[in-house]
Predict the structure.
Amino acid sequence: MRILLAEDDHFIGSAIQQAIKDASYALDWVKDGIAAEAAMTTHHYDLLLLDLGLPGRDGLKVLRHIRQADQALPVIIITARDATEERINGLDLGADDYMVKPFAINELLARMRAVIRRHQGIGNAVLGNGVLQLDTTTHEVTRESKSCTLSAREYSLLENLLIRPGTILSRSELEERIYGWNEEVESNAVEFLIHSLRKKIGSDAIINVRGVGWMVAKEN
Ligand code: CA
């Protein structure tokens, strides 16, 4: 999962950045509305966290622009307590949810998970393909009633595969979803993660399609 955060407040932005990284999402952080729009033209995001009071171009304008371009990108807006009118406008413009500052980071993460699930048509917080079950709230993976915990990156990789069992993701697609802008990616990072994941969940759990990428089997 790759998240775009548009927030000009350094304190709030840093707190969100840390929490999102701890939750194993890749994150790009921009501090004004114009940079937010530019980021969306070059990267695919799974969710936008959008502060409404942004310099450059305010959040409502950014949101209107996204919806006019017919982008289905899930958006959670972040607003000040007294900005009821803005919140209503944001929801009417197509925001999926909102958070009122100050908020508990854990609630933000829970709402993000819910919005992403809804957007991807997944009703359950546990992803699975009949072989593996991945709990998106605890990050625990289970195979044949044996559970283990994954590192942040391992979790992120497996989550991306288990959202669409049977769909092959290439190395660059996986890198795009696992790593943010400022993170250096070693050329064999994805292979390394696949290797360590296979050690934990069984080598047959992740299928390599030579020259194309990786996938998990579809439930039969
Ligand atoms: Ca602001």
About this structure: The chain has a mean pLDDT of 93. Helices lie at 10-22, 33-42, 59-68, 84-92, 105-119, 152-163, 171-178, 189-201.
